[in-house]
Amino acid sequence: MTDTRNEAGPPRLASALMASGSLTTDWLPSYQAVPREEFVPDRIWPGVADGTRQNPLVHRNVDPQAWLEAVYSDIPLTTQWDDGNHQGDGLGTAPTSSSSMPTMVFSMLADLDADAGMRVLEIGTGTGWNCALLAHRLGDANVTSIEYDAQVARDARAALTSAGYSPTLLVGDGRAGHPLGAPFDRVIATCSIGTLPPAWIEQTRPGGVIVAPYGTEYGGENIVRLVVGDDGAASGRFTRSSAFMRLRQQRTERPLVDAYLHGVPWPAGGTATETDLSPAATGSWLAQFVIGLRVPGAFWRAERYDDGAYTLWLYSTDGTGSWATADYEKGRSTYAVVQFGPRRLWDEVEAAYHWWAQRGEPSADRFGLTVTATRESTTVTPWLDDPANTLTA
Q: Are 91 and 234 members of one domain?
């Protein structure tokens, strides 16, 4: 095919990224030197900029122009489904590896604030593009990247070698970091986490930075930028909304309804009440995120009906077996609620939502985390505006 990289592709995308502020002048030389297309496989499922949907397969050998246009669009590109078990050209069940949206790639690199001479640990090599950008900026010797999926790692290594880069590439569980290479000045994760692995803090020098997509169990996700202190704790704010694939070892198995109702027909002994808070109000990405910060150990599902009504199911994950339902119907001003178990989950969600609303619905960048680590686990304390202003239930 005709090489159009220097015509319509990279310059146009670079202009858009610089206009949005995500690509800064210090990263522009790396963008120009490391073409995204050299790290994108022939088969991709283009995503959308404002969601998690995927479009049909685009094959480089079948439609090279469509492939190139997708590569140089500001969208994520799914490159693997179902941990590599997907067959055929259709959509798989769950995307499990991708080339991230360029806006997110360069925004996170800006958050990382890595400078010459700094040593960076990357969790999630993926296609290798982000790793190559770091290697170009910092030098091969200063970049270590860990990928769990062996085939994804092989493909990334081949792409990096072909492009002329040779950072340290490891296959393994990214939660453990790379103790033999520690301490690092910067750690960046290209997968979502719900719990910050203690090794990431232990292996980051005091004053070092950790950048990672952080999602609550309830829902929503944002990039967090943490600075490691002399005391071994890490603290910092969220910087922007995100929607990354979960770190494989932190994926959650969410039981179906019968695990809570035990075969007893709903309302299964639950207590019926009403609320004037629409379940729909709690469903935005940011609302879910804030609720998740204040209501740990809970998740939701929606049971939808043909007329647009739905039942919001809430479930506990703390072993109490608590659950709740809230019924949404368009045009209503009150909504039926049923709750069961020692936790009144709808009451918790409603209180968290009202807490947020009473403060003017603060944006995600006003929230932050303080994370303290032991050898085995981390303790996360969320806060609003200042680490001293912790969120309490």
A: yes
